[in-house]
Structures are given as structure tokens and as C-alpha cells.
């Protein structure tokens, strides 16, 4: 009986001996999507790279024990390799007509070395814009480690007084909503192609230097219709460059995540 009790205690302790961390992506959209990972500079590529998810399907990326940092975004209408996409092809190889604006709904993570005591950091970034709704659900909800739900709609993409219509329209339909900064600095036909250092681009985009965080947080960007929309429909996401209080979250080292698109 004593031997059985010892085995049982060991078995109960196993969940604490984390051997890996995962991010599970689920597709709740009415079409296939492709999950595209991009590793931060000089980090390890996350296997197996771009993953196609059919309607209702899910896939889990395994995070290296040595740590990983980067972002993911959804793409749509892609070829068999997950490239040449109708929506979300914002990095090379670009379409013959050029790359899309980087206005996808992005989810970003930084995982330190497993079990080193450091926190995991994550966010939903809508700094450049958004495409489809999304949520991030940590396996442990506590403090800043919280459910981040972004239920914004493309139908709500606003008009801004200075930069105009923020919608990205392709083949007669709205596929993305640009942030005021991205509308300002992205080349035509989707943006105005103006330098961030010119006029109010300084305050829509807040390049540092010369604009530092506190100055940015008190500038015209926080009064834009876009930022108001994000703060209303996705209050725990980044809506502009220094929106850290709303957007940046940290969790215990051994956390896993679920990311759902089209919530």
C-alpha cells in the first residue's frame, strides 16, 4: 500500500515537471486559413513553419525549451505552400502586384528558457491594423496573464479626418483595416506613402527618437477613431506603438496558450 501511495504521489506531481510548452491555434472561420510564424531576429525557426488549418481544425506549435520569440498571423486564399495568398501576403515572396500591407491581426509571444523562472510575455498587436477577430487564452489565468479577446469587425473600420478611409479593399471587399500610422506611411494604393518624420506622422507612428513613450501616449494617436475602436472592442490589445498598459501581458514560465481566429 505504501508503494502504491508513493507511485500515486509521483504521478500527481508529474504536471509540475513541464517538458514543453505549446501554442494551439484553432480555425473558427468559414474558410481555410494559413498560420504564418515569423521568428524574431536570429532566433530558431519554429517548425513546421506555415500551417494550413481547415474549418474547425487546430494545430499546436511546440516551443523550444531553449526559448522562442516571434509572431503569428493568419493568411487566406493561399497556394499549396502557404504563399501567394489573397490576404496576408505581407512579406516576401510578394504577389506580382506587390506585398499586402502588414495589417493582419498579429499575436506575439516571447518564451524564455523553460523553467528558468522568467515570465512569458504575449500580446495581440493591432498597431499596423487588423484582419480577422482573435483571442489568446493562457492555460493559467492570473493577474496580467489574462484572456485577450479581440472581437472587432471589418465593418467597423473607421474613417479618420486626416488620413481618410482605413479600409484595405481587394476584389471589391474589405479584407483589412489599417491603423492611422500604417495608412500614413504605407505606399499607394493602400496608404499615403508619407514619411513618419513628416507632419502628424510623428504622432500617429511615434518613431523613437524623437517621440518617446509618454509623449506618444498624450498625442493625437489616442484620439483617433481607430484607437477608440480597438480600446472598445479589444481593450487588452496594442492599438498603437506605446499602448503597453493595455496590450502587454505576462504569465508564469510554464504556461501554454490557445489562439482562436474568427471568434
TrEMBL record:
Q: Highest taxon of the source?
A: Eukaryota
Q: Which InterPro entries match?
A: Osmotin/thaumatin-like_sf, Thaumatin
Signal sequence region: 1-20
Q: Which UniProt keywords apply?
A: Signal
- Mind telling me what this protein is named? Thaumatin-like protein
Please report the organism this UniProt entry assigns to the protein. Orchesella dallaii
Amino acid at each position: 500500500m505504501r508503494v502504491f501511495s508513493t507511485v500515486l504521489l509521483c504521478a500527481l506531481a508529474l504536471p509540475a515537471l513541464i517538458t514543453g510548452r505549446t501554442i494551439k491555434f484553432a480555425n473558427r472561420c468559414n474558410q481555410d486559413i494559413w498560420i504564418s510564424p515569423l521568428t524574431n531576429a536570429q532566433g530558431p525557426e519554429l517548425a513546421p513553419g506555415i500551417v494550413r488549418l481547415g474549418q474547425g481544425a487546430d494545430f499546436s506549435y511546440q516551443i523550444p525549451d531553449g526559448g522562442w520569440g516571434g509572431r503569428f498571423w493568419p493568411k487566406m486564399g493561399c497556394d499549396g505552400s502557404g504563399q501567394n495568398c489573397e490576404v496576408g501576403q505581407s512579406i516576401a515572396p510578394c504577389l506580382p502586384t506587390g506585398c499586402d500591407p502588414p495589417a493582419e491581426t498579429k499575436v506575439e509571444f516571447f518564451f524564455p528558457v523553460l523553467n528558468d523562472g522568467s515570465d512569458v510575455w504575449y500580446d495581440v498587436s493591432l498597431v499596423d491594423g487588423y484582419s480577422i477577430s482573435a483571442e489568446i487564452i493562457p492555460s493559467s489565468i492570473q493577474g496580467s496573464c489574462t484572456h485577450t479577446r479581440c472581437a472587432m469587425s471589418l465593418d467597423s473600420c473607421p474613417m479618420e479626418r486626416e488620413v481618410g478611409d482605413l479600409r484595405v479593399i481587394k476584389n471589391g471587399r474589405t479584407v483589412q483595416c489599417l491603423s492611422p500610422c500604417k495608412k500614413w506611411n504605407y505606399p499607394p494604393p493602400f496608404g499615403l506613402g508619407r514619411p513618419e518624420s513628416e507632419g502628424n506622422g510623428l504622432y500617429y507612428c511615434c518613431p523613437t527618437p524623437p517621440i518617446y513613450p509618454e509623449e506618444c501616449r498624450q498625442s493625437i494617436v489616442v484620439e483617433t477613431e481607430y484607437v477608440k475602436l480597438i480600446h472598445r472592442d479589444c481593450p487588452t490589445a496594442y492599438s498603437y506603438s506605446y499602448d503597453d498598459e493595455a496590450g502587454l501581458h505576462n504569465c508564469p514560465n510554464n504556461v501554454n496558450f490557445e489562439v482562436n481566429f474568427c471568434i
